[in-house]
Amino acid sequence: MPEGHTLHRLARLHKRRYAGAPVASPQGRFAAEASRLDGQVLHSAEAYGKHLFHDYGPLGTVHVHLGLYGTFSESPLPAAEPVGQVRMRLAGRTHWADLRGPTRCELLDAAQVDAIKARLGPDPLRRDARPEQAWERISRSRTSVAALLMNQDVLAGVGNVYRAEVLFRHGVAPLIPGRALDRGLWDEMWADLVTLMRAGVRVGRIDTVAPEHLPAAMGRAPREDRHGGEVYVYRRAGLPCLVCGTPVAHRELVGRNLYWCPTCQPG
After folding, report:
1. Is 50 in the active site?
2. Is residue 26 very low, low, confident or very high in pLDDT (cuts 50, 70, 90)?
3. Is 33 a catalytic residue?
4. Active-site hit among 9, 17, 50, 89
5. Which of 33, 217, 243, 261 is the most buried (most CB within 10 A)?
6. Span 136-145, pLDDT tens digits
7. How far is CA 158 from CA 112, 199, 233, in A?
8. Which residues, including other chains, have CB under 8 Å from residue 224's CB and lie 6 or more apart?
9. CATH top-level class of 131-260
10. 22 catalytic residue (yes or no)
């Protein structure tokens, strides 16, 4: 599932390429709502966590959640005929983009949009984020800090990669309860997430390793993974930790894969 930086990149791209231009009508389950938007002008686009919002002014807002399989495919104009099940099409001045396979694509009014945002935790990529809101939930919880970081009601936009990497970078054992986390440490983790995720928006991939642990500095081969980027523990189960050499551990937690270094992140 795309993490928050991907949605913020999409919001910036869509705002730049499609705001002020009329959109074309999509197909599929969104067709009835799309007929109200066909030829209308996109005002703006923004992301909140893993949610994308396209603002059409008085007509409402299109809410998109990509889920596991959703994707926007984009090409320069002229637009081709739709292929497969296209949920939504954007047609700008220079490019067009088709949305396929999202978990949600729906036209909402302002109250419905506010309700979605209200149930989400703070997003490290938003300037209006309140990290103390997440701390209030974390500091009272018996749930593991690893599970809490993936709960979008606690913290919006953080996925499996950022979760594993920020815990490693701060030496936090993933299975300790949230209430055992020190407030000062949480503040450092939040600041680190802001830095890492902003970098992800800029370059379009997740890089979390320090310069001294990059392939060139360590004389190792670059990481080969469809997610891209250089990371410490994510999807490196059984491989030596880049810092201490201990094999990276792995287990399933709340239906997702969890990775950590038992030495660098002692329980």
Report:
1. yes
2. low
3. no
4. 50
5. 261
6. 999 999 999 9
7. 23, 14, 16
8. none
9. mainly alpha
10. no
